[in-house]
Amino acid sequence: MIRVLLAEDMHMVRGALIALLNLEPDIEVVAEVSSGDRIVPTARHHSPDVCVIDIDLPILDGLTAAATIRETMPQIRTLMLTSLGRPGTLRRALAARVDGFLLKDAPPSELAEAIRRVNAGERVVDSQLALAAWDRGECPLTDRELEVLRLAANGTDAPDIAVALSLSVGTVRNYLTTIMTKLNGRNKVDAIRIAEEAGWL
Q1: Residue 110 burial (CB < 10 Å; 0-12/13-18/19+)?
Q2: Mode of pairing for the β-strands spanning 2-7 and 50-54
Q3: Which residues on neighbouring strands pair with residue 102, listed in sequence order?
Q4: Contact 85, 126 (CB under 8 A)
Q5: Distance of alpha carbon 83 from alpha carbon 102, whole angstroms
Q6: Which of 73, 163, 176, 193 is the most exposed place for a label (fewest CB within 10 A)?
Q7: C-alpha span between 175 and 137 (Å, rounded)
């Protein structure tokens, strides 16, 4: 029996997934959580074989939780679910060394099969998403530029970004100008939109 922990914040979706997975003869959902901060302690308590994790969770995002599981409980496999098929999101998931990545609108039989394959040690990635990621190319921004843009996307202004990253305000403004140039954004808001749509933030 494959023991599964399911992390999904939408109650109806979580309930439907649990019902569907429990119909499978070799899969049992042993724990469920609705926020990212509960994943690691719940995984420690229940020792599932596979954690099925929604990427976009409140309090702590799914990828951060998956990376922590990889570091602290490497025997547990992680399968990420997302409703947004962004190539950049897939790249971030692979960088976090998750074992699988599937779109939420995949058929239930595909999810069950992905759980089986991930549990067997395979890496499972949605084929359409993999092709899109292959075509898209790498994020043109450096890690520091991404840090600046993430803070800007959260509504932080240049002086506060400067304090947070121990930079001068002028350096932050230079970073923002470089970011807009690299992403061909008309302004900061446009650059944030482009990066979010590509899944780089």
Answers
A1: middle
A2: parallel
A3: 81
A4: yes
A5: 9
A6: 163
A7: 21
Question: What pLDDT band is residue 70 in, cutting at 50, 70 and 90?
Answer: very high
Spatial strand order of the sheet with 2-7 comes to 27-33, 2-7, 50-54, 77-82, 100-103, 124-125
Give the angle 64-70-74 at the CA atoms, nearest 5°.
160
- Considering only residues 148 and 82, tell me which one the structure prediction assigns the higher pLDDT: 148
Helix intervals (H) in 78-126: 87-95, 108-119
Enumerate the H helices of the chain as residue ranges: 11-22, 39-46, 62-72, 87-95, 108-119, 127-136, 143-153, 158-165, 169-183, 188-198
Measured between alpha carbons, how far is 62 from 36 in angstroms, rounded to an integer? 6
| Segment 41-53 mean pLDDT | 98
Task: Tell me if the pTM is above 0.85.
Answer: no
Which tens digit of pLDDT belongs to each residue from 136-173? 556 788 889 999 999 999 999 999 999 999 999 999 99
CA 194 to chain centre: 18
Tokens of 78: 């992680």
Residues 6+ apart with CB under 8 A from 109: none
- Please classify residue 57 by burial: count the beta carbons closer than 10 Å to its beta carbon, then call 0-12 exposed, 13-18 middle and 19+ buried: buried
Which helix (H) or strand (E) segment holds residue 53: the answer is strand 50-54
Distance CA 83, CA 53 (A): 12
